[in-house]
Design goal:
The protein is α/β, with parallel strands linked by helices. The chain is built from ten helices and five strands. It has one domain: P-loop containing nucleotide triphosphate hydrolases (Rossmann fold, 3-Layer(aba) Sandwich), CATH 3.40.50.300. The model has no long low-confidence stretch (mean pLDDT 96). It binds BIS(adenosine)-5'-tetraphosphate (B4P).
């Protein structure tokens, strides 16, 4: 299987590039952000709880998101692989994902890390906020999300670097140019 983690700060282009990778490689998209927003929209118990964290720029507790990922293989039997977008976001989640995959005799093939300067991230998310209506796309919450990213999520880079899986990709430039860089890496690894 081809299992890709797409990694990066909020607004780095994870969701945007995931869509293109799915189209090209026929992978199954696993976005914890999308899953949580769908629960929020449906006003489920999980959604209401998740919203109380997301609207404050905080991460939803590990056990909640890990539970959402379990059962993935049973749900998507026969898929050529997964794109993990926005998951894992903490070391605990990273270790849990390795264990879930290991039980199925699978592993992460590569981690594509989108590198974008903070100024650009803030600009993109403010722009998205004007149209998305997302409760977390306002300046104050964006700044908190970046802080949370550097404190809780960025340490995962070292975790994957030690495993020899981290590939840094510049997230500046046009969406297509960035995608080309990613596809070059993926093609090299699957060749
Ligand atoms: P996510 O849904 O994962 O959202 P995100 O990180 O804010 O956005 P993403 O990175 O996908 O956005 P994209 O670049 O595509 O998470 C939302 C929240 O859910 C989290 O803050 C957290 O509270 C919670 N959550 C989710 N997963 C969790 C987990 N595992 N554990 C705990 N909590 C979790 O897009 C950004 C914008 O930039 C778009 O408008 C896009 O059009 C634009 N853009 C993209 N590429 C561009 C480019 N090259 N040039 C110019 N603009 C570009």
């Amino acid at each position: 299987m081809l299992n890709i983690v797409i990694f990066g700060a909020p607004g780095s282009g994870k969701g945007t590039q995931s869509e293109k990778l799915i189209e090209k490689y026929g992978l199954k998209h696993v976005s914890t952000g999308d899953l949580l927003r769908s629960e929020i929209k449906k006003k489920t118990k999980l959604g209401l709880m998740a919203d109380s964290y997301i609207s404050k720029g905080q991460l939803v507790p590990d056990e909640v998101v890990i539970r959402m990922i379990e059962g993935l293989f049973e749900k998507h039997q026969g898929t050529p692989g997964f794109i993990f977008d926005g998951f894992p976001r903490t070391l605990t989640q990273g270790k849990a994902l390795d264990e879930i995959l290991d039980k199925k005799g699978e592993k992460i093939s590569m981690v594509l890390s989108l590198e974008v300067e903070d100024e650009e991230l803030i600009e993109r998310l403010l722009k998205r906020g004007e149209i998305s209506g997302r409760s977390d796309d306002n300046r104050e919450t964006i700044e908190l999300r970046l802080k949370v990213y550097y404190e809780q999520t960025a340490p995962l880079k070292e975790f994957y670097r030690e495993q020899g899986k981290l590939v840094r990709i510049t997230g500046h430039g046009s969406i297509d140019t960035i995608f080309e860089s990613m596809a070059t890496v993926v093609n090299r690894i699957i060749a």
